[in-house]
Amino acid sequence: MKALLIVLSLFFVHGLFADTxxxxxxxxxxxxxxxxxxxxxxxxxKSITTCKESTTDKTPFYISDEYRQGDKIWENFRSxxxxxxxxxxxxxxxxxxxxxxxxxxxxxxNYRVPVEVLSLPDKKWEDDLLEESGKRGNRHxxxxxxxxxxxxxxxxxxxxxxxxxxxxxxxKFTFFVKQGSRLExxxxxLDLTDFPLVLVKDGDQFAGERCCExxxxxxxxxxxxxxxxALNESFDPVEYFxxxxxxxxxxxxxxxxxxxxxxxxxxxxxxxxxxxEYPGFGILExxxxxxxxxxxxxxxxxxxxxxxxxxxxxxxxxxxxxHETGEGPFNSYHYKPDNIASNDSFLRPKPLCAFMExxxxxxxxxxxxxxxxxxxxxxxxxxxxxxHESHGNGTCVDxxxxxxxxxxxxxxxxxxxxxxxxxxxxxxNLLKRAGAWPIFFNDSKIKGSRWLSxxxxxxxxxxxxxxxxxxxxxxxxx
Length: 478
Prior knowledge:
This protein is of the alpha+beta class and 478 residues long. The protein contains nine helices and 26 strands.
């Protein structure tokens, strides 16, 4: 390789002097010869990079999960010097890399993997789950985020051991780019915050390019540039590009979402609806408007249980809210939250997406004035909490009936003087169009709702995740 670089350098320099009069070739000044010598030296010191199409079976990074930690949102992170010693906790959803050099330099049993931490979820996610103050002081979520006493949170750059069963390959996720990413656009000019990313596979191999950098007197430094696809709203690829995610700084700016059960598709639709209504909305940052500050999307990981095969609680996402005012998107309001962080406002992605579409369409039909506000109560509640046993699968919502000309935060029933049957009927009709079933509300004059005790003051509607109409409402609108 050294000889090749010198030859290339000489050819390049020869080209620079090719227009010199051949009669004067023997009369080059010492200055010219010195310039030629300096240029050869400079060019010989530069590296040359070559790339060619290739595939690899090695995942570029992993997403951290938990292994036998119960319903916790973290996993133990162990010392790189002593794999039996716990030194910190690492939140689920962190991005880690398993460098070959770490594996070669450390002793460990085969079920523990030496890794380096590359990215961590937003800590506000943990802080919200720990929140216990508020109107009800409900502590149902607190135990999920409580960490071992004295263990700090892992930091980017930390090296240590994780159980290999708590590592999920990157190919099983779709990635959403945060606002202000260091890699703002694709090579073709697409804004990465508007297009989900996936790793491209060729069969069971990752597609991309193998690149090597050559320098004089050095062994070639080779790496793999993985192929990513930017996806449109239909999740079809609109652009492919190759990059080494470990070298470009992208990993600190992405949020992984599982591909399983169309979670990623539904999250993408939620983002699209939010950005359409609130330009500049970011998946992590949310958005600030003149009247409110809506949070970004916070996720609650699934709970698999001790046998690892049964999902006791599915993966869920929290509706964006202004936690100071309780206001949500599309002229909505969260009444009687369990705590100041509104931890009772998680739903499965597709049901949340369909419900947001109902609220969006209702504002168009209602006009958005007083009396049009959608006031919703509890979403997900574990049956063990003994509060809402029918809200345990993350698909059901409670909504207050509508008023004539007020958005007062107060209980209203079908018998109240301010009750507006026509608006309530319109909303229930939209629920039905979006696939909600069953719908309980005790106004016998509204078709499509069923009677159930204690449902004079609120509508109860469920959006089953597998329902075709729920999916269509989320993906295509009403």
